[in-house]
Each structure stands twice: as C-alpha cells, then as structure tokens.
Design brief:
The chain is of the alpha+beta class and about 425 residues long. The protein folds into 2 domains: about 1-180, Cytochrome Bc1 Complex, Chain A, domain 1 (2-Layer Sandwich), CATH 3.30.830; about 205-420, 2-Layer Sandwich (Cytochrome Bc1 Complex, Chain A, domain 1). It has helices spanning about 15-25, 35-45, 70-80, 85-105, 110-120, 145-155, 170-180, 245-255, 270-275, 310-325, 330-345, 350-365, 370-380, 385-395, 410-420; strands at about 1-5, 50-55, 60-65, 160, 205-210, 225-235, 255, 285-290, 295-305, 400-405. The chain has a 6-stranded mixed beta sheet, with helices on both faces. Strands 2-3-1-4 form a 4-stranded antiparallel beta sheet. Strand 8 (about 285-290) and strand 9 (about 295-305) form a beta hairpin. Helix 3 crosses helix 7 (about 170-180), helix 8 packs across helix 11 and helix 8 (about 245-255) packs across helix 14 (about 385-395). The protein is globular and about 75 Å long. The N and C termini lie far apart (about 65 Å). The relative contact order is 0.13. It comes from Sula dactylatra (Masked booby). Keywords: Membrane, Mitochondrion, Mitochondrion inner membrane, Transit peptide. Substrate recognition and binding subunit of the essential mitochondrial processing protease (MPP), which cleaves the mitochondrial sequence off newly imported precursors proteins. One of its GO terms (molecular function) is metalloendopeptidase activity.
Length: about 425
C-alpha cells in the first residue's frame, strides 16, 4: 500500500510525524495483538514486511507466497487503517528515533545529513524542504492524538494505491474489495480539513554546519578529515517531459568515490570521473544526484576533500555545472543513454522495485509507463535537449549545503557569481597583508 503522505505534508503539524509512522508500522492492530503476531502470520507464508517513509510517500510493503494473498491484504489493511498506537509502542518509538538521530550525527557517511541540508536550502521552510527526520525537541510532543489528527487527513482512500507484483490483477481487486473497500479506519472517517496542497517553492540558499570531522572513524585506518559540499539547482518534476533529459544528464555526470573499484564498465567514463576524480587526486568524492518529485526536482553534485582545498573543490564543481551547457559529444551522449536504459532494466528485474515503480507511477499519474516506453523516450534525447534543460537550470539561484571545517568556504554570493559566469570560476579574493 502506497500513500500520498510524507514529511512534505507536515507544514501544519509537528515536524516528524512521518518518521514516527514509519517506525510504528506493523505494530499491534485491531486484529493482531503485537508485532510478533504479525510476523508469525507472515512467516506461515514465508513473508517479510517493511515500511518506508520518504518526503512525499509512505509505503507499507509485504513480500510473501502468492497463496497467502488474502491473508496479506487483510494484514496490510489492518496495519494501515487499524493501528492501536499504544502508549508503550509510542514510547519505544521515541527511544528508537532519538537513537537514530544520534547515530545520524556520528556516522562517517554524511550522505543522509547532506541530503536533508540541500533540500532545506533549496526549498526553505516549505514542502520537500521540510525535515524528513523528527527533530529531537518534537519526540516528546508527538502522541496518539497528534498522529490520529494527521492520519484522518492523509490516510484517505483517494490518496492510497494498492499495488501487487506476481499476482493476477483480478485476484488483487477481489481482495481489495473484501478488505479495503468501505473499511472504517480507527480514527473515524470525519471530513478532511487540513490537507496541505501547497506546491513546492524553490528558494535557493545555503545551509552550513560547522562540524569537527577529524574523528569520525577512529581505528587502524581512519578516514581522513573531509569537508563535504553539495551544490544543487532546480531541475523539474517527474511529470514533465524534461525529466528524461535530466535523467540522461545525471547519468552523464555520474561520478562516485575515488576508491571505486572496477574498470570503464563501472561508469568510469562519466564526466565527474574523467574531469574531476582523474585530474585532481586530492578529491575524495564527486557524485551527481537527481531528486525528483511531483512538482519540482533538484540536480546536485556532492564533493568532498581536505578542508584546506575547499575553495578549489567548489570552483571545480561550479565549472562542471557551466560545462554541462557546452558541447555534448555524440559518443558520450549515447553511452549515458545506454547506461540509463540498462540501469532501468536491471532494476526492474527485482520485484520490490517493480512494485514501487508501479505504485508510485499510479499514485502520481493514475497510469503506468511500461519499460519499453521509457526506453523509447530515453532513445529520443538529443544533445540539444541536454543543452536546453541545463541553460534553463543555470538561471536559477543555487542551493548549497556545507558540512565540516568551513574556514575556506567561498561565500554564497561568490558561488552564485561563479555559476552565472562564462567559465564557472569563483571571483578572485585579494587578501591584505600588513
């Protein structure tokens, strides 16, 4: 079951509700006395369960033997619509969330933290810019009443999709009629009044966190102290036609860590490998990411290096952004398109991915584009399309996230100036010496 509900809908509520719901999923319900009972029921059909909340969707998923379809749909309906949310479960969730937040700040991998920061910078205080993790100060404030008032507004039939893979469509429809149609949720079916329909407003900006990264991983081979920078620009929503050229562009930029193993087949031909990691031995990481939502998107590059080389690193990344609008080689473009197609096909060999793909597409558009249709669209992308989407993107203000020792970080104004210059170079800074 996929539900159109996530941290982006929490504007009128306490931030962190989706994080709580994700952790509380598959706990006791009207039919099942405890999490163990649910797991035992699933085990009879060799099943496993999982719940994942993102910025715009929450997904309750079960994989089990097809013979147990009726049991599984019944269980899902109960978990989604009839959770008990007992005081004890909520208290345990509070503890789990506090632990997760501590762990997030101590991890050597800053990826989840930087992703939060870049979204907060790009969409300041609105929709997808709202924090996906529950802030520490809210862990004590979220209780059953708060959760129920949120669920009443967002867990409604028009915002839900039941998706299945490996079963006949008719069987799934029958089960949906039996267990979900007209089911009365535990919070009652009053009128929804507080549904947030706001559209993402891209603001651009900078979020900086000064942090001592010198001891993130102690031991015989510690990770050296690094400063992490992420620079992003607004792309487009996954419903727009430009989404495909952006996906090809993201593939073309590619990148990864300086310790990626393997030869050219591992994407070593992407621009961030060829122009950045191969030329600047001191860069530890340069990776391109593309986040896309129903009403907006964000293309960003994450780079990390020694704190003394932050300025140079930022300039290398701004230059790569400017070069995106330049010439795109035919071979380079074809390679990126082939890579994107093969990645799409490889991912769609896994059932959980097909399930999520079907569910998300139907949730957003009420239809599903089949893989061969997507491949045909990828095949049609020309170098002029790449140039067009990049030129449009470069007119926006940048979003910047910076984490670590930021002594040498250029100012936001300088980064913005570099991204609107012809060569992507930062303005020169003259230091006065007495």
């Amino acid at each position: 079951v996929l539900i159109n509900s996530g941290s982006r809908h929490e504007a009128k509520y306490l931030s962190g509700i989706s994080h709580f719901l994700e952790k509380l999923a598959f706990s006791s319900t009207a039919q099942f006395g405890s999490k163990d009972e649910i797991l035992l029921t699933l085990e009879k059909h060799g099943g496993i369960c999982d719940c994942q909340a993102s910025r715009d969707t929450i997904m309750y998923a079960v994989s089990a033997d097809a013979k147990g379809l009726d049991t599984v749909v019944n269980l899902l309906a109960d978990v989604v619509l009839q959770p008990r949310l007992s005081d004890e479960e909520i208290e345990m969730t509070r503890t789990a969330i506090r632990f997760e937040l501590e762990d997030l700040n101590m991890r050597p991998d800053p990826e989840p933290l930087l992703t939060e920061m870049i979204h907060a910078a790009a969409f300041r205080d609105n929709t997808v810019g709202l924090n996906r993790f529950c802030p520490v100060e809210n862990t004590d404030k979220i209780d059953r009443q708060v959760l129920h008032s949120y669920l009443r507004n967002y867990y409604t039939p028009d915002r839900m999709v039941l998706a299945g893979v490996g079963i006949e469509h008719e069987q799934l429809v029958e089960c949906a009629k039996k267990h979900l149609l007209g089911a009365e949720p535990v919070w009652g079916s009053g009128q929804t009044k507080d549904v947030d329909r706001s559209v993402a407003q891209y603001t651009g900006g900078i979020v900086k966190v000064e942090k001592d990264m010198s001891d993130v991983s102690l031991g015989p081979t510690p990770i050296p102290e690094l400063t992490h920078i992420m620079i992003g620009l607004e792309s487009c929503s996954f419903l727009e036609e430009d989404f495909i050229p952006f996906a090809v562009l993201n593939m073309m930029m590619g990148g990864g860590g300086s310790f990626s193993a393997g030869g050219p087949g591992k994407g070593m031909f992407t621009r961030l490998y060829l122009n950045v990691l191969n030329r600047h031995h001191w860069m530890y990481n340069a990776t391109s990411y593309h986040h896309s939502y129903e009403d907006t998107g964000l293309l960003c590059i994450h780079a990390s290096a020694d704190p003394k080389q932050v300025r140079e690193m930022v300039e290398i990344i701004t230059r790569e952004f400017i070069l995106m609008a330049g010439a795109v080689g035919e071979v380079e473009l074809e390679r990126a398109k082939t890579q994107l197609k093969s990645m799409l096909m490889m991912n769609l060999e896994s059932r959980p991915v097909i399930f999520e793909d079907v569910g998300r597409q139907v949730l957003a558009t009420n239809t599903r584009k089949l893989p061969h249709e997507l491949c045909a669209l990828i095949g049609q992308v020309k170098s002029t399309d790449i140039k067009r989407v990049v030129t449009k993107m470069l007119h926006k203000k940048p979003a910047v996230a910076a984490l670590g020792d930021l002594t040498d970080l250029p100012t936001y104004e300088h980064i913005q100036a570099a991204l609107s210059s012809k060569d992507g170079r930062l303005p020169r800074v003259y230091r006065l010496f007495r």
